[in-house]
Specification:
The protein is mainly α. The chain has a domain of 73 residues. Helix 1 packs antiparallel against helix 2. The radius of gyration is 26 Å and the shape is rod-shaped.
Length: 106
């Protein structure tokens, strides 16, 4: 048995994907909250740390939205390939009496 086919590896992949998804969701929520909370702050000088944080949050949200567009495109490509494979699969597998384990005693 190879490591890539084991149940433990699949469990690790699911856990890792869940953690990454939660981190992305937390980043989106925290950035959105900060932008909404500090949108009308009083800016005193040119090097305002709040304005700098607002700029960083805006850039993070822009990058995540661009990444989500690429992710959706890749998922659609994967769905199309898997649907094509499922459609053609019955044509590739032929059933015989031996495959179905039918005993012919005649």
């Amino acid at each position: 048995m190879t490591f890539s086919n084991s149940k433990n590896f699949n469990s690790i992949k699911k856990t890792l994907a869940t953690l990454i998804g939660m981190m992305i969701l937390l980043t989106i929520l925290a950035s959105s909250y900060f932008l909404a909370h500090e949108a009308a702050h009083k800016c005193d000088d040119e090097d305002c740390p709040v304005c700098e944080c607002i700029h960083i949050c805006e850039e993070a949200l822009k990058r995540l939205s661009n990444a989500s567009e690429v992710f959706v495109a890749l998922m659609m490509f994967g769905v199309i390939l898997s649907a094509d494979n499922e459609i053609n699969e019955p044509l590739l597998i032929s059933t015989t009496p031996v495959n179905r384990k039918i005993r012919l005693n005649d």
